[in-house]
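Lab notebook: predicted structure, single chain.

Context: the supervisor wants predicted structures on file for every construct in the current expression panel, including those that have not yet been purified. This is the next one on the list. No modifications to the sequence; it matches the entry in the shared construct table.
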Amino acid sequence: MAGEWPTVTVGDLAESISETHKFGKDHLVFLNTSDVLLGKLLHHSYSAVRDWPGQAKKSIRKDDILFSEIRPANGRWAYVDIVADDYVVSTKLMVIRSRTNGVLPRFLYHFLTGIDTTRWLQHLAESRSGTFPQITFDQVAELELSLPPLDAQVKIAEFLDALDDKIELNRRMNEMLEAMARALFQSWFVDFDPVRAKSEGRDPDLPQALADLFAARLVDSELGETPEGWEVGTFSDAVEVLRDQENPLESPGTLFHHFSIPAFDSSQWPKEELGESIKSLKSRVPPGVVLLSKLNPEIERVWFVDVKPNDRALCSTEFLVLRPRPPAGRSFAYCLARSPVLRQEIEGLVTGTSKSHQRAQANSILGLGVVRPPATVVEAFERTAGSWLERTVECRLECRTLAALRNTLLPRLISGELRVRDAERNVEVA
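Prediction complete. Output recorded below exactly as produced.
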């Protein structure tokens, strides 16, 4: 029971390690703060030691916890679950290592990365002067927690690991579904694989009724070779830009779904905010649209949004609100806006001298040349890719629900207020 669990500090359980790696090899794996995220090491690629920056110094080992000193709430942390003799990490990453057998490293990791802990550390970082909010291990060491017996630590860590695994599974599912939809678009509408196969006398590897929808040869056009009978038009033939705007300050007590650039970058999920906290004019976001950022287009921000009919949804005016024009549907418009050829052309439209505030103008984007496939082919694409992309919205919602559950349950589990079996019931209900 919680009342029987002793209160300890992180400093009682762990220490910060600053061991310099013994560089005995020419090629090792270097991890900077950008190479760890939400528990994971993002790469395992060997590179030449001579090419590394000066902060590449620290050695690590299995069961260490990596935690960014800068902006501690930004998710730049990881648990080292591999033998890591060939890994070197930046001095900007704390290497936190258990110093006693009385704590399970994985339990300590979950405490340190819980939302209550990271918010408090972010507060401490922001209370200090400087451009980059930063913490020290001395501040981490002062954090207090209830320490359950090892068997309870194991059960809590396993439960939280299972939640993290579910979130990761959904994330990978999203990546796979997105990749399938974009690969199909590339094959049909960029590489024209079914047409090429038919023109060369090969089987297009499609059901006969679907294969019959494609032309049998390619012809020259102003965009290069395109299928015979397919027209050439502009991006505005596939989408229209909706320009309805609203000042949320005029509805201060209304809860809006705010599709902002930071919300896209962090989770591709809108932030729920009262009108009084949204300070500038925004664009309305109705159901069935795609958002395309015109700000810094070298950063690809195309959003397959989830908006219900009764939602009060707004987006930054840096986004273009794109409604597909029939026969194009939302999946076609989304994949077209993400196609490499169109992305490259959009990047070539930027204006502005500041690298951080370059924009492509809406009318210029709409005027870019695109191929216009027959309605029957576009509709066939929508029937297939549409179900995949709609599933990505469901996966993002499931990830959000699971993450919220984790954030709610973690402090109650670690404090002893909630038992694992009760937490499992909460997840089943959700």
